[in-house]
Amino acid sequence: MEQVINELMETIMSNQLSVPVLQPILDSVSQLPMVGFIISFILWKPVFALLICPGLSTVGIVLLFFPWIERKLCARIQWRVGPREIVPWLGGLIQLVADTLRFLFHEVIVHRDAHRPYFLQFPFLSFLAALLPLLFLNAGSVMAIETPYAIQALLALVCLFPFFILGLGWASNSRFAFIGTVREAFMYFAYEISFIIAVLAMIILYGTSNPLLMADKPWGIILNPIAAFTFFIGAAMATSRMPFEIPEADQEVAAGPHVEYSGIAFGLIYVMCYEKAYILSGLMVVLFLGGGSGPFIPGITPLLGDIMGIIWFLLKIVIVLTTLFVLRTIYPRYRLDQGLNIGWGVMISLSLIALALSIILVQGGII
Amino acid sequence: MKKVTVQDQSTVEKVKCHAAAIGVAMKESIYPLTATVQYPRQRKKMPDNFRGYLLFDPEKCINCWECAFICPANAIRMKEAPNKKYYPTVDYGKCIFCHFCIDSCSGGALRTTKIHDVAYKDMDDMVTLTEEMIEPPEIIREDKTLVEYQIDKKDLQIKKTREVDYLFVDEVPPSVEILMVSMCIDGASCIGCHVCEQVCESGAISSAIANGVMRMKIDTDTCTGCGLCVKECSMQILKLVRK
User: Is residue A322 part of a domain?
Assistant: First the structure.
């Protein structure tokens, strides 16, 4: 028994998050009997990745504040004010807290025609499916599951969410939900292939699919901008941001697959879109913007250690997410046929060009 | 029928347009030009001739009933006051704020204000009695900023000043009088009844027989544009036109 505990402790202690600034405090705390164990368990990199960054806490913060950032930014661009009345001196910063409270106290209505068990399960299942890819996302050197096939696994899990959204629409059993679901399915086929080919181009270019090794290479956006562009448009389609907000299309076809939902079930579906955007922009940062690498700042980088990688990663995610959000103010929505045309025409051609470019760069020995 | 076609643009032009759109978005996200007037805290500046809540001064009222006659929405009813005079009451449920009553008021008893935010509990409350029209309604002022839209040559500009707008109009700006003259629009139909000549107070209309046909002649210099001849003409061939 003691041997097992010792082995466990050794595993945990061998893969700790290193923060030189906090080291003296951590050393003194680790002398305490139970607290020391808990803290070193949390600072164990896989657990830290799950609980703090890029896992649960960061997702929570992103879901609480990014809808606010989006609404505020779009409002500024469109000459409006945006959320304001809740805590005016902070500019309505905790708007989403208020919204969450509202969603919690709404009644979840299950209408007569719905497939009751599936109707109630799918919002929660889809939220879980949207959380799973975080296992393979790395912030700097912090990663939950280290595997040489991390990008492929992440991509496979990312491609899982449309099924749950289709499930939502099917379980709703309403004509408006069906229309939204079919549109979602169309868009899913339109972006998926070119999206996967763009990632494949980057894997070929780097010669590895371990994100920890990718961070040392030059930035993908410089090496293969075409793949970055295709990936970005694919991400906009996958998260149904404005130019490709085809499945939802509030003004024309009710609200997509989740018309029938209310209360906290709707709240989960509503924030799931942002969660998806967060994961896809994380993937974009890992593939194209050098992950957690950044310029060396004397005096700060050596002190913060692994935290610095996390900071760079989050900063890049903020930039990518903001760019995704701003698209909404610039472009009007495409029609379904235009969206399909872009997906099957321009994007597949671009992704194939990007693939060819990667192969040429690798074969030519430039990288 | 006009067919709408897609504008033909080269790829370079399209990329330029996209770049321009992104540039505008970036500029606006840093220096936004917020057009929203946050109403209870800010108030839009209204012009002096804004058609708002009506105020009434019984001292100047001459009891002519013009306001009640001209009201197109039938919102004004005359009510008898203790001094045996009839004063107007306004039903704001019906009033369309055309302010014909103010224009027609010869004594200047009715005047406008810039108040546009009065709330009533029910429809019956909207019938505003004469006593209630003498004093302005009680409004709670929360505004601290005055917002003014200025249309520049290129763009809309928003000017915000920290002052509280004065909602009453003390002096009504004098209206510009448009000079009119009477004119015969169909001389061939004139039956020569001489009514216009008799009714004209300024003697601007004279008659003459030319080629055995009676013709009325209007002197545009002496005509005051009162419109009496237009009203009396039996053939309705006279009309007031701009001088």
Answer: yes
